[in-house]
Design goal:
Layout: E1 5-10, H1 18-31, E2 36-41, H2 43-47, H3 54-71, E3 78-82, H4 87-97, H5 102-107, H6 109-118, H7 126-129, H8 131-141, E4 146-148, H9 154-171, E5 179-181, H10 211-219, H11 240-248, H12 252-264, H13 269-295, H14 298-327
Helix pairs in contact: 3-13, 3-14, 4-8, 4-14, 8-9, 10-13, 11-13
Bound molecules: tryptophan (TRP).
Length: about 325
C-alpha cells in the first residue's frame, strides 16, 4: 500500500525552540516511520515579512536544518529541502493566484491576525497577503494529504482545500485535498507564563541552548509569586515549572507527589526547578550534543538539504507538469 504523504515546514526566522519540539518536531520524528514525509524550510515565505532582512532568513536556514537533524529527522526517511530551491512552487503559486480573491485572503483568520500583530493595515506587502496561496502550492506540489501544523495554521489549510476544489472543478482532477494534523500537546507557554513560547516575546528555550543557558532559563521561570517562604502553600496552576514538568517529565507519579507537596507547603521552588532541569537535560542534552556535532560540519548539513531539494524538485516538477497540461499552457 502506498504511504500517505506529509508536507510541513517552518519559516527560517530563528532557531527552533521547545514549543516547536512538542508542537511539531517530536511528531514528525514519529511520522517519518509510517509516512512519506517532506519537511520544508520556507525561506520564500519568511521573506514575505522580512524582505528588508534577508540575512536573517539566510542565516536561519542552516540553523533550522541543524535543528531538524539534531532532533532525529532522518534524511533516509524525511525529505528535507529549501523552498526557494524549488522554483516550481512559485510557478504553481501564479496559477493558483487566479483562483482566490483579495477579499478572501483578507478574511483568512491567520493572515488577518498576523497583519494586525504586525500593524500592516492597508500597507501589507502583497507577497505577505497571498502567502496562503504559496502555501497551497507547497502542499499540493507534493500531493500531501496530511499537513501537521499548529492550530493557528488550520485556516491556511482550509484555504488550500478551496483552491484544490476550484482548480479540480475548472481544469480536471489533478490536485489532492489535505487534512491538518494537530499534535496532542496544547501549545507550550513561555518561561514567563504569559503566552506561548515565541521568539519575539523572548521567553523561549532553544534546542541549541547550552547547559548554562538552559539552567539560567529554568531558574528564572515564572512560578507562584505568592509562594515566598518554603512553608507557604504554592499554586500549581499557572506555575510554569509544573506546566513544563507535565509536558517533559517522565515520572508522572513523582510529579504528582511534588505537586501535592508544593500545594500543601514545604517544597521550595529551587527543588522543583532542579528536578525540572534534570528532566530537560535528560531529554535535550543528546539533541544539543548532536547539534554541536552538526555545527562543526555545516557542509555535511547543507549536503543533506541539497539532496533533499533535488528529490523534492523532481516531485514538484511532476505536479507542475500535470497542472500545466490541465490548464493547457503546454505549447511545444
Ligand atoms: N506557515 C507555516 C508556519 O508559519 C510554515 C509553512 C510554509 C508551512 N509552508 C508550509 C507549513 C506548508 C505547512 C505546510 O509555521
Amino acid at each position: 500500500m502506498k504511504k500517505q504523504i506529509i508536507l510541513t515546514g517552518d519559516r527560517p526566522t530563528g532557531q527552533l525552540h521547545l514549543g516547536h519540539y512538542v508542537g511539531s518536531l517530536e511528531n514528525r520524528v514519529k511520522l517519518q516511520d509510517t509516512h512519506d514525509q517532506f519537511v520544508m524550510i520556507a525561506d520564500m515565505q519568511a521573506l514575505t515579512d522580512n524582505a528588508d532582512n534577508p540575512n536573517k532568513v539566510r542565516n536561519n536556514v542552516i540553523e533550522v536544518a541543524m535543528d531538524y537533524i539534531a532532533v532525529g529527522l532522518d534524511p533516509n526517511k524525511t525529505t528535507m529541502f529549501i523552498q526557494s530551491a524549488i522554483p516550481e512552487l512559485s510557478e504553481l503559486t501564479m496559477f493558483y493566484l487566479n483562483l482566490v480573491t483579495v477579499a478572501r485572503l483578507q478574511r483568512n483568520p491567520t493572515v488577518k491576525n498576523e497583519m494586525q500583530q504586525k500593524g500592516y493595515g492597508a500597507d501589507v506587502p502583497a507577497g505577505f497577503l497571498m502567502y496562503p496561496v504559496s502555501q497551497a502550492a507547497d502542499i499540493t506540489a507534493f500531493k500531501a494529504n496530511i499537513v501537521p501544523v499548529g492550530e493557528d495554521q488550520l485556516p491556511v489549510i482550509e484555504q488550500t482545500n478551496e483552491i484544490v476544489r476550484k482548480f479540480n472543478s475548472i481544469y480536471g482532477d489533478v490536485l489532492v485535498e489535505a487534512k491538518g494534523l494537530l499534535s496532542n500537546h496544547t501549545r507550550l507557554a513561555g518561561l514567563d507564563g504569559k503566552a506561548k513560547m515565541s521568539k519575539s516575546l523572548g521567553n523561549c528555550i532553544y534546542l541549541g541552548d547550552d547547559a548554562d543557558t538552559l539552567k539560567k532559563k529554568v531558574f528564572s521561570m515564572f512560578t507562584d509569586p505568592d509562594h515566598i517562604k518554603v512553608e507557604d502553600p504554592g499554586k500549581i496552576e499557572g506555575n510554569m515549572v509544573f506546566t513544563y514538568l507535565d509536558v517533559f517529565g517522565e515520572d508522572k507519579t513523582t510529579i504528582e507527589e511534588m505537586k501535592a507537596h508544593y500545594a500543601h507547603g514545604g517544597l521550595g521552588d529551587m527543588k522543583v526547578k532542579r528536578y525540572l532541569l534534570d528532566a530537560l537535560e535528560a531529554k535535550f542534552a543528546p539533541i544539543r550534543d548532536k547539534r554541536i556535532e552538526l555545527a562543526n560540519d555545516k557542509l555535511a548539513v547543507m549536503e543533506i538539504i541539497k539532496q533533499g531539494s533535488i528529490k523534492a524538485k523532481e516531485v514538484a516538477t511532476q505536479t507542475l507538469d500535470e497542472v500545466r497540461r490541465a490548464i493547457g499552457v503546454q505549447y511545444f
